[in-house]
Write a structure and sequence with these properties.
It is a single chain. This protein has 154 residues and is mainly alpha-helical. Helix 1 packs across helix 2 and helix 2 packs antiparallel against helix 4. The protein is 52% helix and 5% strand. It contains six helices and two strands, in the order αααβαααβ.
Length: 154
């Protein structure tokens, strides 16, 4: 029997929004991601401090002793500049790209701006990094509070 040339083609329907299996990132990947990201955050912080010293200080003068509050504020500003745009838009940072991980929400999508801001603020909770390394679920406060997960990329 001849096939009808006007019949619609057969193809499997694949829903790209359907959740895929999310594999949590291993501890070593998360630790390596932290090291790479922290190095880049320190580069941003040094750049900001250099620009501020050129703008605010007379030539040749250097601030030797900085208050701890100043260092924390500079670290928070640098981390915000680094993490929020990258995780809010794409769900990855430079460290996550190098280690093959990404941040997703509970539905497997990039976290968005609000969750990226919550993750950045959550990173400043004391002992947050230890929670990632020592807990069985591999989730720190910065993951649990905005309900995000660090998973391996496909």
């Amino acid at each position: 029997m001849l096939e009808n040339p006007y019949r619609a083609p057969h193809s499997a329907v694949v829903d790209p929004a359907a959740p895929t299996e999310l594999i949590p990132a291993e501890r070593w990947r998360r630790l390596l991601t932290f090291v790479v990201d922290y190095f880049l955050i320190n580069l941003i912080m040094a750049s900001i401090e250099y620009a501020l010293s050129l703008w605010l200080l007379p030539p040749g003068q250097v601030i030797v002793n900085r208050p701890a509050a100043y260092t924390l504020v500079m670290l928070f500003v640098s981390a915000s500049i680094y993490y929020i745009p990258q995780e809010g838009l794409w769900g990855v940072t430079v460290g996550k790209v190098l280690t093959g991980t990404r941040v997703v929400d509970e539905h497997g999508r990039p976290p968005g701006w609000r969750k990226a801001i919550k993750r950045t603020v959550g990173r400043f909770i004391p002992f947050d990094a230890l929670a990632v390394l020592l807990t069985a679920r591999r989730r720190g406060f910065h993951d649990a509070w905005p309900n995000t997960y660090v998973v391996r990329r496909r």
